[in-house]
Amino acid sequence: MAAEELLQSVDHYKTEIERLTRELTETTHEKIQAAEYGLVVLEEKLTLKQQYEELEAEYDSLKQELEQLREVSRGRPGPLGPRSEGMRSEGLHLRALC
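Structure (tokenized):
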């Protein structure tokens, strides 16, 4: 009987080792998948950060260009200058008369 119990114990331990090995393999696989997903998320974050910085630089450049155009238009007569507002109101006045 002792030999039979010993064989049952050995079988039980073999089964337990197989189960734990499967769980370890599955857990390791899940950990690798999580790490790969984390890398993808980090790459996307870096790409978005780079796009944001490029758009911010373009925005600053366009903002500066607009300010320069406004400064130029304030200093000279013409379609963008101070006189143009008077011309627009005269044009509106003439249209209203017609």
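The chain has a mean pLDDT of 86. The helical segments are 2-75, 82-97.
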